[in-house]
Amino acid sequence: MTSDINPRDSIQPLVSTDGPVLLLGGARTADTQGVLRDMLAIGALGQAPVVAADGGAGLAIAAGLAPAAVIGDFDSLSDADRARLDPSVLHRVAEQETTDFDKALRAVRAPVVVGVGFHGARLDHQLAAMTVLARHPDRPCILVGPEDIVCLCPPRLRLQAEVGSWLSLYPLGPVSGCSDGLEWPIDGLELTPADRVGTSNRVSGPVQLEMGAPLMLLILPRPALRPLLEALSRSDARWPARAG
């Protein structure tokens, strides 16, 4: 039987694990299935619980995966896909104030979540997903697209990225920090979306970042997923929950 969850802030953990969770969304590009196949080939993710945000259940079904939970308002879950799912994994959240990504992320407790199907398609949906990352800084989450990966930069990050590869920092509000291992350090700079941003930097050695606020997006090429997954799984790579 489908469970109904109503108040915005009352979602209890529906999936809890000591390892990563693979979260699937409904944003499709020509490469989404290929991106998912690549994620499943990564040891830690190949064995991870799968959670679908509403229409992301279709991506799971097409890949032969059985989601541990399907969470959302179900406005994009097709009748055909719904009929293929065990009703006990369906959890409808009726409120319309937040996206299905937000609803699903709030219902997962894991050291890190890896999301596929949340960016690379419609720009407005992609921007909304970035807002969700900033709204829940206490829930480390990496969104994987056809070309790149993105997460909210934690308070401290140690990352073994490939020397010479690109690394971008994009502020969602005024934020400053410090860095090691970047060709153009950010020390002493205040980055803001309307003035100075940190895109198209380059890795010059082992990367260390410290941020003063949970407002910085870290964007990397897709091959950096494994080291970023390891880095975000550390206990110090987490902001406190936002008040209210």
TrEMBL record:
<feature type="domain" description="Thiamin pyrophosphokinase thiamin-binding">
    <location>
        <begin position="162"/>
        <end position="211"/>
    </location>
</feature>
<keyword id="KW-0067">ATP-binding</keyword>
<dbReference type="InterPro" id="IPR006282">
    <property type="entry name" value="Thi_PPkinase"/>
</dbReference>
<dbReference type="InterPro" id="IPR036371">
    <property type="entry name" value="TPK_B1-bd_sf"/>
</dbReference>
<dbReference type="InterPro" id="IPR007373">
    <property type="entry name" value="Thiamin_PyroPKinase_B1-bd"/>
</dbReference>
<dbReference type="Pfam" id="PF04265">
    <property type="entry name" value="TPK_B1_binding"/>
</dbReference>
<dbReference type="GO" id="GO:0016301">
    <property type="term" value="F:kinase activity"/>
</dbReference>
<dbReference type="GO" id="GO:0005524">
    <property type="term" value="F:ATP binding"/>
</dbReference>
<keyword id="KW-0808">Transferase</keyword>
<dbReference type="Pfam" id="PF04263">
    <property type="entry name" value="TPK_catalytic"/>
</dbReference>
<keyword id="KW-0418">Kinase</keyword>
<dbReference type="GO" id="GO:0030975">
    <property type="term" value="F:thiamine binding"/>
</dbReference>
<feature type="domain" description="Thiamin pyrophosphokinase catalytic">
    <location>
        <begin position="50"/>
        <end position="135"/>
    </location>
</feature>
<dbReference type="GO" id="GO:0004788">
    <property type="term" value="F:thiamine diphosphokinase activity"/>
</dbReference>
<protein>
    <recommendedName>
        <fullName>Thiamine diphosphokinase</fullName>
        <ecNumber>2.7.6.2</ecNumber>
    </recommendedName>
</protein>
<dbReference type="InterPro" id="IPR053149">
    <property type="entry name" value="TPK"/>
</dbReference>
<dbReference type="GO" id="GO:0009229">
    <property type="term" value="P:thiamine diphosphate biosynthetic process"/>
</dbReference>
<dbReference type="InterPro" id="IPR036759">
    <property type="entry name" value="TPK_catalytic_sf"/>
</dbReference>
<dbReference type="GO" id="GO:0006772">
    <property type="term" value="P:thiamine metabolic process"/>
</dbReference>
<dbReference type="InterPro" id="IPR007371">
    <property type="entry name" value="TPK_catalytic"/>
</dbReference>
<keyword id="KW-0547">Nucleotide-binding</keyword>
